[in-house]
Amino acid sequence: EVATGFQLRSISSANYLIFGYADCVTVLIELGFMSHKADRALLKEPAFLDKCALAIAYGIDAMRA
Which burial class, exposed, middle or buried, applies to 31 when counting CB atoms under 10 A from its CB (0-12, 13-18, 19+)? Predict the structure, then answer.
């Protein structure tokens, strides 16, 4: 379980086309699925989005350490 309360589904790497245009490290973060009713409800909540933003910031900071 991650800081958001969502179960960690997977972590993977890929060579997505959009990343080829960046001159820096890129990361794609998916917070949930709009097709999943519970995920969709959470993704509409500002407090939940703030929690996600903080978790992402902490994760970036942890990777830089």
Answer: middle
- Fill in the amino acid letter for 10: S
Residue pair 17/26 in contact (Cβ under 8 Å)? The answer is no
- The winner for highest mean pLDDT among 3-12, 36-45, 52-61 is 36-45
> What global pTM score does this model have?
0.68
Rg value, the chain, Cα: 14
Q: What is the DSSP letter of 40?
A: H
**Closest residue by Cα to residue 31 from 13, 7, 12, 63:** 7
Count of H-run helices and E-run strands, the chain: 2, 0
Cα 12 to Cα 3, 19, 27, 48, 55: the distances in Å are 19, 14, 11, 24, 18
